[in-house]
Amino acid sequence: MQHRRKAASAPAPAAAKQAPPRRPSAPLSVAGLVVCIFLVATFLYSEVKPASSPSSSSSSSSSTTTSSSGGSDLPLPLETTEAAAGGGDGGGANGRDLQEASPHHPDLVEQQEDQHLEHQEEDEVEEETRTSKSGSHEQQQQQRKEEEEKNKAVVRLPAGCELYKGRWTFDAAGEQVPLYKESECEFLTEQVTCMRNGRRDDSYQRWRWQPDGCDLPRFDARLLLERLRNKRLMFVGDSLNRNQWESMVCLVQSVVPRGQKTLQKFVNNGSLNVFTAHEYNATVEFYWAPFLVQSNSDNPQVHSVMDRVIAWRAIAKHAKNWKGVDYLIFNTYIWWLNTFEMKVVKGGGRHHQDPDLQQGGWSKYALVDRPIAYREVLKTWAKWVDRHIDPNKTTVFFMGVSPNHVV
Ligand SMILES: *[C@@H]1O[C@H](CO)[C@@H](O)[C@H](O)[C@H]1NC(C)=O
Ligand SMILES: *[C@@H]1O[C@H](CO)[C@@H](O)[C@H](O)[C@H]1NC(C)=O
Ligand SMILES: *[C@@H]1O[C@H](CO)[C@@H](O)[C@H](O)[C@H]1NC(C)=O
């Protein structure tokens, strides 16, 4: 953190809505955004799953998927988020490097091994055969089909392929990128629709990540959704991770027909946004927790707070919403760029003291150097991960630095 360039000027929260002038690094940043998602996505389908998955017994033969997970079947109209484009203040860093650390990262080298896709559900045609009767012949046939499906839902990378070492390449011909067009994704918020906001040059979408020793397979939304069948993928963090979430939603939504996908914002009036691909019973979610730990800026809609104060030991209130998720991608970044010192509430929120409920609330705080505060927050977070995450079920990523935004 301490190496990051500070924003030259103080943040201007309620800036005008127009697209800001771009610096030369902007194209990279936006492309980086897509690629970050892509790396996570690639990881998702090439991931090795333990054989002991909860439902290989598949009681889900009655997968009446459309009505499975509540929620209305109609896409909700998009609300503009961010009362005052709040998340985007400050950042002057150019987020070129993608760093991912994952405490529970299966060995990438093993990717070529045979893999188990845990939930093998059939499409409707196969369902019919299944319900008719289950003679041994049909069982065999079904098994074969499951095998085929399994193979389809796996991306094989050359052994030893190191996804994280590589470079950005400009795909001038647009052969592999962009992976989606802004105009084709109804779920983007106004804040991130560069073209609609008046940007003329779309070359920023032509960057792609090229690993040094191998090629990335082309992104395939169906494959990803197959891997996410009956699962939850959640981004947790600040507005940069929300961008990643929006990109991920756009990456997968194109293969889901209308009426089969919904986006619910501020679920239960809270910090959670959920995109659901109903046919797959899969969700791609975003949980707003800009510091991961509790802060006085946790209201997902009104968070342009003058004095941002954190409680560096208090995480339970947010974290209870992360339990049971299959893939968690955390970040906390952009709001650390604003000041050299962080305001840490007195007591730090220890012993489950929720500052929201304490006398004095957030008004009593100490100033702490950023690197120290950041370390303490990560400690709180890592402890929570160690105690509450079952590595057999959940894969955890931490996004260290990611492409920034300026509004
Ligand atoms: C849908 O997915 C959730 C997890 O996201 C799971 O708990 C539930 O059992 C799934 N429903 C069906 C019908 O498989
Ligand atoms: C949601 O929160 C807003 C703002 O805090 C409040 O005005 C509204 O009544 C809440 N809605 C529900 C359904 O609780
Ligand atoms: C995870 O799975 C392995 C092998 O199946 C097992 O030995 C281990 O106890 C499991 N860990 C947890 C925390 O359930």
Automatic annotation (TrEMBL):
<keyword id="KW-1133">Transmembrane helix</keyword>
<keyword id="KW-0808">Transferase</keyword>
<feature type="compositionally biased region" description="Gly residues">
    <location>
        <begin position="85"/>
        <end position="94"/>
    </location>
</feature>
<feature type="domain" description="Trichome birefringence-like N-terminal">
    <location>
        <begin position="160"/>
        <end position="215"/>
    </location>
</feature>
<keyword id="KW-0812">Transmembrane</keyword>
<feature type="compositionally biased region" description="Low complexity">
    <location>
        <begin position="8"/>
        <end position="19"/>
    </location>
</feature>
<feature type="region of interest" description="Disordered">
    <location>
        <begin position="1"/>
        <end position="26"/>
    </location>
</feature>
<dbReference type="InterPro" id="IPR025846">
    <property type="entry name" value="TBL_N"/>
</dbReference>
<protein>
    <recommendedName>
        <fullName>Trichome birefringence-like N-terminal domain-containing protein</fullName>
    </recommendedName>
</protein>
<keyword id="KW-0333">Golgi apparatus</keyword>
<feature type="transmembrane region" description="Helical">
    <location>
        <begin position="26"/>
        <end position="45"/>
    </location>
</feature>
<feature type="compositionally biased region" description="Basic and acidic residues">
    <location>
        <begin position="143"/>
        <end position="152"/>
    </location>
</feature>
<comment type="similarity">
    <text>Belongs to the PC-esterase family. TBL subfamily.</text>
</comment>
<keyword id="KW-0472">Membrane</keyword>
<dbReference type="GO" id="GO:0000139">
    <property type="term" value="C:Golgi membrane"/>
</dbReference>
<dbReference type="GO" id="GO:1990538">
    <property type="term" value="F:xylan O-acetyltransferase activity"/>
</dbReference>
<dbReference type="Pfam" id="PF14416">
    <property type="entry name" value="PMR5N"/>
</dbReference>
<dbReference type="InterPro" id="IPR029962">
    <property type="entry name" value="TBL"/>
</dbReference>
<feature type="compositionally biased region" description="Basic and acidic residues">
    <location>
        <begin position="97"/>
        <end position="119"/>
    </location>
</feature>
<keyword id="KW-0735">Signal-anchor</keyword>
<dbReference type="InterPro" id="IPR026057">
    <property type="entry name" value="TBL_C"/>
</dbReference>
<dbReference type="Pfam" id="PF13839">
    <property type="entry name" value="PC-Esterase"/>
</dbReference>
<feature type="region of interest" description="Disordered">
    <location>
        <begin position="49"/>
        <end position="152"/>
    </location>
</feature>
<feature type="domain" description="Trichome birefringence-like C-terminal">
    <location>
        <begin position="216"/>
        <end position="406"/>
    </location>
</feature>
<feature type="compositionally biased region" description="Low complexity">
    <location>
        <begin position="52"/>
        <end position="72"/>
    </location>
</feature>
